[in-house]
Each structure stands twice: as C-alpha cells, then as structure tokens.
Design goal:
The chain is mainly alpha-helical and about 160 residues long. The longest helix has 24 residues.
Length: about 160
Amino acid sequence: MRVFVEQEAILTLFEDSRAATLSAVADLDWALPLGADGWRGADVLGHLAAWELEAARALAAHQSGAAYAPPAAREAFNQAVFEQARQAAPARALADWQAARAELTERVLALEWPGYGRRLDSADGPLFIGALAKRLIAHEQAHIRAVLRAAGRDQPYDTWGG
C-alpha cells in the first residue's frame, strides 16, 4: 500500500506521541486511584481506547460513504465506557489501549488520498483527518498528565507539542 505525505505525518504523530507516553508511564501502577470518582489509571486507558475506537468508527464511515452518528452525549458515553470496563485488569486495559491505536492506524492507512481533502464527521464535528489526529493525541496527553500527577510524577514528558 502506498503511503503519502499527509498519511505519513499522521502515522508519525501517532507513533512518536505514543512512544513518548509509554516512556513517561514506564513502571506506572495502573491500579492507582485517581480521585473520589472511582477512576483508576487503567480506567483512563479504557476511556482513551474508547475514543480512539470511536474515531476509527468515524473514519470507517467516511471511507465507506456511510453516515456517522457520534455518541449523543459525551458524558453519558464516558460514563458507559467507565461502567463497562470498570476494574478491568491493568494489563488488559493497557492491551486494549494499544489495540485501539492499532485499529485507528489501520483506518488511517486505508484512507485514500481524496479522503484527506474532505472533512469527516467525527464526535467533535466535521474535521480534517489531521485535526482529528491532533485532537486524539492532545486528549491522550491531557489524561496521561493527570495520571502522572496523581502518581506524584508531575514532570513533563516529551510530546509533539500538544
């Protein structure tokens, strides 16, 4: 499969940002509670995975020409994801998070050149694929920073600038 510049840039962002995140969270206790709401680090991974899978679903609809219907309410979606994956084993949450990125990457690879010139419907409204990728990375970084703060590891980590 031929890869073009825009695709390569997005794939590089995904790879570099995930590598930075994995380096920052090395040896992190994903069972760590994050606050009174009951979320743990592993639950954050489930949340991030769910939104990446949602983006993959939006890309799949875009690729097939089908209509995409985003979650009706973000808070309800987030709570449903939390309830479904609550107390999942940290190793499972980490594997699911990585699998979601792999699925999203496959969708980016499958997107033909003309798809990059059109906005796609997403949970954040109509976006170009590059903007969607940047939002997903920024979302990951914001949540991972919060997990690191809760773990007493408040140092910044190298990112793509998001």
